[in-house]
From TrEMBL:
Name of the protein this chain belongs to: Major facilitator superfamily (MFS) profile domain-containing protein
GO molecular-function term, one example from the UniProt record: phosphate transmembrane transporter activity
Annotated GO biological process: phosphate ion transport
Pfam families reported for this sequence: Sugar_tr
Keyword Transport tagged: yes
Membrane topology annotation: Multi-pass membrane protein
Keywords: Cell membrane, Membrane, Phosphate transport, Signal, Symport, Transmembrane, Transmembrane helix, Transport
Family annotation (Gene3D superfamilies): MFS general substrate transporter like domains (1.20.1250.20)
Entries under PROSITE patterns matching the protein: MFS
InterPro entries reported in the protein's UniProt record: MFS_dom, MFS_sugar_transport-like, MFS_trans_sf, Phos_permease
Gene source species: Anisodus acutangulus
Residues covered by region (Disordered): 419-449
Segments forming domain Major facilitator superfamily (MFS) profile: 1-417
TM annotation in the entry: 70-96, 119-138, 259-276, 282-301, 313-332, 352-373, 394-413
Length: 449
């Protein structure tokens, strides 16, 4: 269907489902949760399309010298989104807390969640649609990428016209008529599908590398992200939930997560943007996984030390550094590399497969940590949960996961300073096809690349 067309569809799907998530219908908890899950599923469907398209479109527009920085910058804007979401949650929860006072949960379990608290989460979810909606006009004005039009849609004339529009130069559309008509076109050896021996022999290990590293990263990254509050509570940085009202808890968790984003997440993204085309994707990913492994073990092995009063700041600093090196590391590079190393026809598909593998890792990390982090003493575990291995041992498991990420990084090729066609070997195929056409051509016209 093309990059541009689906890009608009995914945006509208995300915006509609963000608003619908906040409207989640019904009064009963089961009804609200059922409709919330329904709309969040379709929101995820939209995001699942937006991820590979954003990376692919930028990779196909950028030049080889700055391509990594441009794709990383697209991903780095996520950091500002995280920051903006956290700040907005702080503002909304502070406003509601000031307007609707409530006792702590341990004082009055039912009264600690005032009826107006129902608006807090709804407003936060719905406002997320606004910045996305503002980009719709520019997405629709953006031309289709020339690589898709020329290499996939096989319309070289339209690709040339689009390139003239983007680059604001006159390439000479009338002189660039495609040399290969439907009758004379020779099928390139690059016309293989995803489920073919040729794809497996050329890109099988590459796809294994991008999927496995993204899978392993997200096990560690999302378990850390989703359970920051549990870790911060365990070390005493956030008060126990029972000592706060519902809205106060939102405020304090949002404040802690925003601080982490400001001090480590956002800087990590932009370090990648500035350095990725200088030191390369492979080096950054290897460095990131290595440092995450070191810091995770530094948190886990002396874990009892960090839980004592006075040592919390040291724990938060090390914990922040794991986020910094995730973002100045595999969290950025796993987004960049799949958009560079596969053929144009399969580029966004392979990126989508890699991203889906990452989200599978996020599910494993989220549910796994939820159960693993429970205390080993069953009497101290949360209601409804079996005994786990404790936070300390869970952090050791995450350290091992990061260590595995180091080994699988060696399956991913370095794409710094190399063109997309060079990485996917489409140039080789074009040369072979061009030579074959020239041998059979009566008018000796050249094939535009």
């Amino acid at each position: 269907m093309g990059r541009k067309r689906v890009y608009g569809m995914t945006l509208m799907l995300m915006c509609l489902c963000s608003v619908a998530s906040g409207l989640s219908f019904g009064r009963e908890p089961k009804t609200v949760l059922a409709t919330l899950c329904f709309f969040r599923f379709w929101l995820g469907f939209g995001i699942g399309g937006d991820y590979p398209l954003s990376a692919t479109i930028m990779s196909e527009y950028a030049n080889k010298k700055t391509r990594g920085a441009f794709i990383a910058a697209v991903f780095a804007m996520q950091g500002f989104g995280i920051l903006a979401g956290g700040i907005f949650a702080i503002i909304i929860s502070a406003a509601f807390e000031a307007s609707f006072k409530a006792p702590a949960y341990e004082v009055d379990a039912l009264g600690s969640t005032v009826p107006q608290a129902d608006y807090v989460w709804r407003i936060i979810l719905m406002v997320g649609a606004l910045p996305a909606l503002l980009t719709y006009y520019w997405r629709m004005k953006m031309p289709e990428t020339a690589r898709y039009t020329a290499l996939v849609a096989k319309n070289v004339q339209q690709a040339t016209a689009d390139m003239e529009k983007v680059m604001q130069v006159d390439i000479g559309t009338e002189q660039k008529e495609p040399a290969l008509s439907a009758d004379t076109a020779v099928k390139s050896s690059n016309e293989f599908g995803l489920f073919t021996k040729q794809f497996i022999s050329r890109h099988g290990l590459h796809l294994l590398g991008t999927t496995s590293t993204w899978f392993l990263l997200d096990i560690a990254y999302y378990s850390q992200n989703l359970f920051q509050k549990d870790i911060f509570t365990a070390i005493g940085w956030i008060p126990a939930a029972k000592t706060m009202s519902a809205i106060e808890e939102v405020y304090k968790i949002a404040r802690a997560q925003t601080l982490i984003a400001l001090c480590s997440t956002v800087p990590g993204y932009w370090f990648t943007v500035f350095l990725i085309d200088r030191i390369g994707r492979f080096t950054i990913q290897l460095l990131g996984f290595s440092m995450m492994t070191i810091f995770m073990f530094a948190l886990a092995i002396p874990y009892n030390h960090w839980t004592h009063p006075g040592n919390h700041i040291g724990f938060v600093v090390l914990y922040s550094l794991t986020f910094f090196f995730a973002n100045f590391g595999p969290n950025a590079t796993t987004f960049v590399v799949p958009a560079e190393i596969f053929p144009a026809r399969l580029r966004s598909t392979c990126h989508g497969i890699s991203a889906a593998s990452g989200k599978l890792g996020a599910m494993v990390g989220a549910f796994g940590f939820l159960y693993l982090a429970q205390p080993q003493d069953k009497t101290k575990a949360d209601a409804g949960y079996p005994a786990g291995i404790g936070v300390r041992n869970s952090l050791i498991v995450l350290g091992v996961v990061n260590l595995l990420g180091i080994f699988f990084t060696f399956l991913v090729p370095e794409s710094k300073g190399r063109s997309l066609e060079e990485m996917s070997r489409e140039n080789d195929d074009s040369s072979e096809a061009g030579a074959e056409v020239e041998n059979h051509s009566s008018d000796n016209r050249t094939v535009p690349v």
